[in-house]
Amino acid sequence: MSSNGGESISSAAQTPKSGVKAVLQYTGIPPSWLDKRPRLPSRNWLIFLSVTSAVTGYYIYDRRQCKKIRQEYVDKVKDLAVQPMGSMELPRLVTVYGARWPGDQDYDRSMRYFRKYVKPVLVAAAIDYDMIKGRRHGDIARHVADKIRKERRIMAGLEEHFSGPMPIPGSSFEEKRQREVDGGIVIVGRHTLKEYMAGLKRGWSDGLEAVDREERLARVLESDGKFDEPETEPTAEAPVGEGEPIPTPSRLPSSKPFSILTTPALRAPPPAKPTESIPDHLNKPPTEIPPQPPMLLVSFTNYIGLTQIPLMVWDFFNERYKVREGAEAAYRLIMGNTRPFTAPPANALTRPTSEFDIEQPQKPYLAELTPTDLDFDRDSESYYKKSVVRDFLSEIEKARKEYYDSLAKKLETARALARGTREPTKEERENPPPTEVELRAERLKKELRWTADEEGWNIVRPDKEVEWDERFRDKLRVYVDPPVEQRPSSEAAA
């Protein structure tokens, strides 16, 4: 009785399987898997899932908002792209300037910012653009100065404007100049504004002589004595033959061997070109300049370095703010509303140089700010790497000293091999050392880079103010936000 009772109880405890479980038990799935009941994950799994889902959701939300904001501004200006144009008309041309951010090896960061956040709205409005990149500090300033100097030479009749083999509409100097003024310019970042204003002032202040920086520097380097041979003490021996002294190193033939395979640039420095005779009334700076293209000032900050990694992470998850700033900047340019460039009075721009210390540059965020366009995006300079601000010029001097310390030995070897005073070693036969001509060319190349970097850094360093000239007053204009009725619906509601 007891055994039969136990069997009945066990059979009653076993519930008959039906439905999905009855089918899956014949597929080889372990029965324990089918009898499992759902339960909450462990504490660690809950933490992991919560964090990943929150981060993923925030990223997806941010990118959706980016598309929404960009599309909103694109829809606002896309009607301008379908407006008919005449057969002889050209689209609006905008010039974009982007300088290299101090301390960043990637010179294209500022231009990449323009292409990602500003360009889409300009393309939607069918506006053409020309990008001018600064690979090294000072490139933008030199480009602007040379461009203005060339325009002044054309206006003074010292140089002819080349409009192509056959004249076409829009190819004359006046038409190109007017198209540039009507198109406007885009300046990305305060460092670019400094270079542009420095080039603008230099172009309208310097003379009209054609400047060849390489030739001018070569003339300066010829007289510094780095390639002079050491003087030897005169010997007391009697002259040999018909009054001819014993050959000395100074009387030996030049160590620059001539070869038809040697390029003219590597032989001897070219003779000085005759200076161009320019009348004084044309060569002096003009007292008044013509109207300049309106400027679109685009804020830009580049985070580099370990200490700025949290800011990089924040920017990665908040792209929508950059998209809105870039779209608003492009919209200001498209609408064309401008105001005069604001600058402080002339007496307020003169500051004593004793306030600045080159070794310890002044913090821009400690300076007293004034509400003018010369203080545009000043806070971005506080994000420069401190090591770059402190050691930029000293690193150039260190590299220059190391080069000249090693140059003496290279020059001695090159002259000894050229004059045949010793036989080349096995290593020198396999890898011939540079000749004196090649050393001169290498030195000129290095000095061109070093002097250009020093000149450019003196423009963009944080303790240096933006260049200003009183002739620019009432000639420069800045794009501003359009009236409220012309703004997108979301911005007007905000």
What does this structure look like?
- Helices cover 46% and strands 5% of the residues.
- It has 16 helices and 6 strands.
- The strands form 2 sheets. It has a 4-stranded parallel sheet, sandwiched between helices. The protein has a two-stranded antiparallel sheet with strand order 5-6.
- The chain is extended.
- About 9% of the residues have low confidence.
Provide a concise account of the structure shown.
The protein has helices at 2-13, 20-24, 31-34, 43-81, 109-124, 139-155, 173-183, 190-205, 213-222, 280-283, 309-316, 319-335, 386-419, 426-430, 436-460, 489-493; strands at 93-98, 128-133, 185-188, 295-298, 338-340, 477-479.
Considering the chains and any ligands shown, give keywords for the structure:
494 residues; 4-stranded parallel beta sheet; 46% helix; 16 helices; two-stranded antiparallel sheet
